[in-house]
């Protein structure tokens, strides 16, 4: 997927491909670039054509990736996919977009092998017209090493950056960490995807819920008091949600609970709110810091998004 010098439409593709105009595309490499040209040189592309070509490339890329064995179709789409397509269609160097794509894949828990294979599929899609299973072969191994290296480094940077937070339990509160919650969410989406494909023993996504716990005291200028209130709330959450639920800490004032949506869930939420309020109000300093609502905590229920990547975005928005 590299930038090429201009060729006339009469020149054959590198590699000895057929001269059939339906399948041939000019394609040459420049070792100093990481780009990819999706429009053969010599074919004019109007501004109005660009969005349609981007959508067509994205559709072909996705279909070919799913045909290659991508395990979770809902995980494939992400903002960087569109930026890669835009760079390719416009003839720009897609290196930065590929970096962003690899980083988003890593952040969503997608492995390096799947990430690089997806790039290989894109390279194969750009190298030929048909997108059937025939393209999922050795052409996937033809991606320029420099581009693979960029993607691998971007993916590894994200993984390395999160290595310091790989502890399963927060030392202060005893709640599980964000990294562990991401892992549990990935397991839940794997489990619920089986239900969507017709497995009678797998629960659907609607059978799970994410409870977001918001502490309303004290002010941001008293961090120590906020931490103590968080410890009290964490103790209550572990006591009330003690049947296999995942109780995690997103940030200092936002615990969350990943739980099954059983009929008793509403009652358990009320019980947790009441217990947290009781413990907080027992401390005069905390009681004086209450806002006008007179309540120290609010627990709201958030349904799980349709895709794992969207669930990760939801967690980021709550931090």
Largest sheet composition: 4 strands, antiparallel
**How helix-rich are the residues, as a percent range?**
40-55%
- Spans of at least 5 consecutive residues whose pLDDT stays below 50 are 1-45, 130-135
Structural class of the helices, strands and pairings? Answer: alpha+beta
How many β strands by DSSP?
A: 4
* CATH architecture name of the largest domain: 2-Layer Sandwich
Order of neighbouring strands in the sheet with most strands: 2-3-1-4
Number of helices: 10
Q: What gap, in angstroms, lies between the N and C termini?
A: 37 Å
From the spread of the alpha carbons, the general shape counts as elongated
CATH class of the largest domain, named Alpha Beta
Organism: Actinopolyspora mzabensis
Region (Disordered): 1-51
Protein name: GGDEF domain-containing protein
Biased composition (Polar residues): 21-33
Describe the structure concisely for a colleague.
By secondary structure, the chain is of the alpha+beta class. The chain contains 10 helices and 4 strands, in the order ααααααβαββααβα.
Overview of the molecule:
The protein has 319 residues and is of the alpha+beta class. It folds into two domains: 49-161, no CATH class; 178-318, Alpha-Beta Plaits (2-Layer Sandwich). It has helices at residues 49-67, 79-90, 95-107, 112-127, 145-161, 178-196, 223-240, 265-281, 284-288, 308-318, and strands at residues 208-215, 246-251, 254-260, 297-303. The longest helix has 19 residues, at 49-67. Residues 1-45 and 130-135 have low confidence and may be disordered. This is GGDEF domain-containing protein. Residues 1-51 are annotated as: Disordered.
């Amino acid at each position: 997927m590299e930038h090429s010098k201009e060729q006339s439409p009469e020149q054959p593709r590198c590699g000895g491909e057929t001269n059939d105009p339906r399948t041939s595309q000019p394609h040459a490499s420049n070792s100093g670039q990481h780009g990819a040209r999706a429009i053969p040189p010599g074919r004019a592309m109007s501004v109005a054509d660009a969005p349609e070509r981007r959508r067509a490339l994205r559709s072909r890329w996705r279909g070919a990736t799913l045909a290659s064995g991508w395990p979770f179709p809902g995980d494939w789409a992400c903002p960087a996919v569109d930026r890669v397509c835009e760079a390719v269609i416009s003839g720009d160097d897609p290196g930065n977009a590929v970096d962003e794509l690899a980083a988003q894949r890593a952040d969503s828990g997608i492995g390096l092998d799947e990430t690089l294979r997806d790039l290989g599929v894109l390279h194969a899609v750009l190298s030929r017209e048909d997108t059937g299973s025939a393209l999922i072969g050795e052409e996937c191994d033809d991606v320029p090493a420099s581009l693979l290296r960029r993607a691998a480094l971007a993916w590894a940077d994200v993984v390395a950056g999160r290595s310091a937070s790989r502890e399963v339990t927060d030392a202060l509160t005893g709640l599980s960490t964000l990294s562990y919650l991401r892992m549990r969410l990935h397991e839940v989406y794997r489990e619920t995807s089986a239900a969507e494909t017709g497995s009678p023993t797998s629960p659907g996504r609607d059978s799970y819920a994410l409870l977001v716990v918001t502490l309303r005291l004290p002010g941001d200028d008293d961090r120590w008091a906020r931490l103590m209130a968080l410890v009290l709330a964490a103790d209550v959450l572990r006591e009330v949600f003690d049947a296999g639920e995942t109780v995690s800490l997103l940030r200092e004032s936002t615990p969350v609970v990943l739980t099954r949506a059983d009929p008793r869930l509403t009652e358990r939420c009320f019980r947790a709110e009441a217990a947290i309020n009781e413990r907080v109000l027992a401390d005069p300093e905390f009681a004086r810091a209450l806002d006008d609502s007179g309540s120290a905590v609010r627990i709201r229920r958030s349904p799980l998004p349709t895709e794992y990547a969207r669930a990760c975005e939801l967690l980021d928005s709550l931090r």
